[in-house]
Design brief:
It contains eight helices and eleven strands. With 235 residues, it is α/β, with parallel strands linked by helices. It folds into two domains: 128 residues, Response regulator (Rossmann fold); 98 residues, Orthogonal Bundle (Arc Repressor Mutant, subunit A), CATH 1.10.10. The strands form three sheets. The chain has a five-stranded parallel beta sheet with strand order 2-1-3-4-5, with helices on both faces.
Length: 235
């Protein structure tokens, strides 16, 4: 089932989307403010976001601000953001496409058009997810190859990557990395330490570090390695 978070004051539009998409296994969650949207995001995983740029709430937070913050949290991973806006905010929407949005629908909304764009974005994500590279790693020589290309990692970068590969669960939390790699006790250590090393590893292993496909992350869940993995040992 696809989970979609619809952030807008227009509850009727969200209900119309739900009516059209629920047959195909889509579930629409409505948030009428950025604050409520953030609460949902911390509690659940969403496959796609619809953000109304005309949004404003009592805190003064706008849809544009939410979009920018959300994209930073997602690290441009695998959740598309579709923007909606009135004609007065068309230029803003175009500018936002350069920084955080994946698509834009102008108001007044035509539900069939928005549904088509939602399906197109989710198809695009599914296709990207199937493009998986070959990662060969040797814990004896501390060597890493991505599709035959030698990747020169520092020892701590190698340890993080190897730890992620060997964890049984799909997603590995920052706390688990701090404990497993640095031997920090529970609730200790600095999450920024992990983020900085993850950023450096992505610069070396990803074709486009801003849109990581191999070393993935998901807000609220952690990190995982998405690749065909071969572990080699020295003879």
């Amino acid at each position: 089932m696809y989970h979609i978070l619809c952030v807008t004051h227009d509850r009727t539009m969200c209900q119309m989307l739900q009516d059209q998409l629920q047959v195909d296994g889509y579930h629409i969650i409505h948030a009428d403010s950025a604050q409520i949207a953030r609460e949902y995001i911390t509690e659940d995983h969403f496959d796609l976001f619809i953000i109304d740029l005309d949004l404003g709430d009592n805190s003064g937070e706008t849809g544009a601000q939410l979009c920018r913050d959300l994209r930073e949290q997602l690290e441009a991973l695998d959740a598309p953001i579709i923007l909606t806006a009135s004609p007065l905010n068309t230029q803003m929407a175009i500018n936002m496409l350069e920084t955080c949005g994946d698509d834009y629908v102008r108001k007044p909304l035509v539900t069939r058009e928005l549904v088509a764009r939602i399906r197109a974005q989710l198809r695009r994500v599914a296709v990207n997810a199937r493009v998986i590279g070959l990662l060969r790693i040797n814990p004896d020589s501390f060597s890493v190859y991505i599709d035959g290309r030698n990747v020169n990692l520092t020892r701590i970068e190698f340890d993080i990557l190897y730890f992620l590969i060997n964890m049984p669960q799909e997603w590995v939390t920052t706390g688990e990395i701090l404990s497993g790699v640095w031997n920090y006790p529970a609730e200790a250590g600095d999450a920024a330490l992990v983020r900085n090393h993850i950023r450096n590893i992505r610069r070396k292993v990803e074709a486009d570090p801003e849109r990581p496909q191999i070393l993935q992350s998901r807000h609220g869940r952690g990190y995982k390695v998405h690749a065909h993995i071969e572990v080699e040992h020295a003879v």
